[in-house]
């Protein structure tokens, strides 16, 4: 039975990798269930053996990729650092991972992938929040942060950074985005009760990239 479950999961993950590529290339809105089945070169019965619908396979593909990104974050997380330095490092690694594939990002940000993009942001926020919450909790214990609800604070920070600062989604102009980033730094500092200038590196990074 264990081997059967392992084979099932391995095959399902293999299909999910291909499904991710299908949605990225073709666009979620443009991709029908029949197209997916044809592109995977499997029968309808085989598809339903692993997935219940187009939406379910999309959610599963996104979750699989987000899990791999979170795993990379966790592997590169230096837990011996103080919380403020550790959070800075995690933010930088997250930005690096997010911007590592420009071609893929352009396709995710295309109008035909609006729903897919939204699903990706929601899962990314939910999956990332526990790590951010852990770091915030550490900071409270060390006295560098002053937060009463670490998990919820982490979720709000991630929602702002992944949604509000998405220039492609909001069509922010470069000069406008600079102000948004500065405001985000100020908010981050106040919400966490951190020392001033703790997060100035974010706007400095954007100035170098924009």
Automatic annotation (TrEMBL):
Pfam families to which the protein is assigned, alphabetical: TetR_C_39, TetR_N
Residues of the signal peptide: none
GO molecular function: DNA binding
Identification of the protein by name: TetR/AcrR family transcriptional regulator
DNA-binding region: 32-51
Source organism superkingdom: Bacteria
Domain HTH tetR-type residue range list: 9-69
InterPro entries recorded: Homeodomain-like_sf, HTH-type_Tx_Regulator, HTH_TetR, TetR/AcrR_C
Xref: SUPFAM superfamilies: Homeodomain-like
Alphabetized PANTHER family for the sequence: ACREF/ENVCD OPERON REPRESSOR-RELATED (PTHR43479), ACREF_ENVCD OPERON REPRESSOR-RELATED (PTHR43479:SF11)
Keyword annotations: DNA-binding
């Amino acid at each position: 039975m264990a081997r059967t479950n392992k084979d099932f999961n391995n095959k399902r993950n293999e299909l999910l990798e291909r499904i991710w590529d299908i949605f990225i290339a073709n666009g979620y809105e443009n991709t029908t269930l029949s197209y997916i089945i044809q592109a995977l070169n499997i029968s309808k019965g085989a598809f339903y053996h692993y997935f219940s619908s187009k939406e379910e396979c999309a959610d599963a593909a996104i979750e699989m990729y987000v899990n791999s990104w979170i795993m990379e974050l966790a592997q590169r997380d230096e837990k011996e650092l103080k919380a403020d330095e550790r959070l800075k490092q995690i933010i930088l690694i997250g930005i690096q991972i997010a911007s590592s594939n420009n071609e893929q990002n352009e396709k995710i940000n295309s109008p035909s992938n609006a729903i897919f993009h939204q699903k990706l942001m929601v899962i990314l926020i939910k999956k990332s929040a526990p790590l951010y919450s852990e770091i915030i909790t550490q900071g409270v214990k060390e006295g560098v942060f002053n937060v009463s609800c670490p998990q919820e604070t982490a979720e709000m920070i991630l929602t702002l950074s992944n949604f509000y600062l998405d220039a492609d989604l909001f069509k922010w102009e470069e000069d406008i985005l600079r102000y948004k980033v500065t405001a985000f730094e100020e908010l981050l500092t106040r919400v966490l009760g951190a020392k001033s200038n703790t997060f100035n590196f974010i706007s400095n990074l954007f100035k170098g990239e924009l």
